[in-house]
Amino acid sequence: MKRILVTLLALMIVLSGCGTSALQDYQSSVLLTQSYTNGHTETSLSVDVTFDEMGLSFEEQRDLSYFERIDLTTSLTYIAEEVFRGQLDGYFNFGGLGFDMVYYMNGDEVLVKLPIMDKYMTLGSDDGLTDTSMDENQQDAIDRIIEAWNGVLNEDDVFSGSKAYVMTDKGQIKTTTYTISINEEQFDVLKEALLTILEDEQILEAFLQDSENFTENEVDTEEIQNMLHELLEDVTLTSFEGKAYVDFDGRLVRQDFTADLMNHRAEPGQVESMHIEYETSYDSLGQVEDLTFPEVMEEDLLRMEDGDSIQDYFPEGLF
Q1: 98 CB-contact burial (10 Å; exposed 0-12 / middle 13-18 / buried 19+)
Q2: 273, 274, 275, 278: CA torsion to nearest 10
Q3: What span, in angstroms and rounded, lies between the C-alpha atoms of 122 and 227?
Q4: Considering the domain boundaries, does residue 215 fall inside one?
Q5: Which residues, at least 6 apart from 223, have a Cβ–Cβ distance to it below 8 Å?
Q6: Are 43 and 73 in contact, with CB atoms under 8 Å apart?
Q7: From the CA atom positions of the chain, what is the Rg in Å?
Q8: What is the SS3 assignment for the chain?
């Protein structure tokens, strides 16, 4: 789980080595923000999906409607000094089913407050779910994506900076606003990089290992490889705009982007279009002094039996 978070954080620092003045200023803001060993971040992701429903029965259309909206929100308060300590509150809604979970992280030990049953579960380094390290294949994939992304950002009219006011929890503040606008041709460059990475089974297997650790189900790498390859080949970008807001002290206040994707070759039952909105805000940098973790009674602690996996303790069909 934490390795996935680390991967996402790595993708947010994809501006290293950029050449223009605006990019260099933004890169400095990213590094300054990350230099704080404590703080608070809030993230939201929403995805609206439309399907090709031509010729589908009422029941098939109804089943697809459950997946027309995906929402994910997280709130993380952290102290990263000798070890990483943090509380992550998350809410996830997918397929019409919404649930929230709370992660209490203290080094390699993670305490999870489970949804529905209102119990806690402990995760440790032995189960593979709290490992933050990346193997060589994962790091190679990240490096290649960063290289392709940097190439796009250095093109003319992609990255720009301006002054603007933005509302925060502390009121309206003046910021330097950086804007990223990507067209279809530039998106194709990134898509080609991803397609090349997908051809390497070792890289894909390295990332899918996290899923196997979580569910203990064997993952069919070839099937997922073919599915992702077909999806990337058919999808086109119709719009993309990203923004980053930096305060007077050079720290990130907020980052967000919106994107629209279209699959012009969609067949009945397949995804036809996607609208994605993402936002991350940063607050209380350098101001978090302590974290309080719950004291869990033995009767509130869920212990897995040998051979069980996490999904065995949730309603059937949730995973």
Answers
A1: exposed
A2: -170
A3: 34
A4: yes
A5: none
A6: yes
A7: 21
A8: CHHHHHHHHHHCCCCCCCCCHHHHHHHHHHHHHHHCCEEEEEEEEEEEEEECCCCCCHHHHHHHHCCCEEEEEEEEEEEECCCEEEEEEEEEEECCEEEEEEEEEECCEEEEECCCCCCEEEECHHHCCCCCCCCHHHHHHHHHHHHHHHHHHCCCCCEEEEEEEEEECCEEEEEEEEEEECCHHHHHHHHHHHHHHHCCHHHHHHHHHHHHHHHCCCCCHHHHHHHHHHHHHHEEEEEEEEEEEECCCCCEEEEEEEEEEEECCCCCCCEEEEEEEEEEEEECCCCCCCCCCCCCCHHHECCCCCCCCHHHHCCCCCC
Beta pairing partners, 42? 75, 281
Going by pLDDT thresholds of 50, 70 and 90, the confidence category of residue 203 is low
Parent domain of 302: 2-313
Position 313 pLDDT exceeds 60: no
CB neighbours (10 Å) of residue 159? 23
**319 is a domain residue:** no
The angle subtended at Cα 31 by Cα 146 and Cα 78, nearest 5°, is: 105
| 83 lies in some domain | yes
Q: Band the pLDDT of 310: cuts 50, 70, 90.
A: low
At 132-191, the pLDDT tens digits run 445 566 667 777 777 777 777 677 666 677 766 666 666 677 778 888 888 888 888 888
Cβ atoms of 185 and 212 closer than 8 Å: no
In a domain, 318, yes or no: no
Which residue reads 């090709």 in tokens?
A: 52
* Structure-token pair, residue 222: 């070839």
How many domains does the chain fold into? 1
Task: Say how far residue 143 (Cα) sits from the centre of its chain.
Answer: 17
C-alpha to C-alpha distance for 189 and 185, rounded to whole angstroms: 7
What is the pTM assigned to this prediction?
0.74
- One-letter amino acid for residue 31 of the chain: L
Question: In whole angstroms, what is the distance from residue 74 CA to residue 278 CA?
Answer: 12
214: tokens are 């979580």
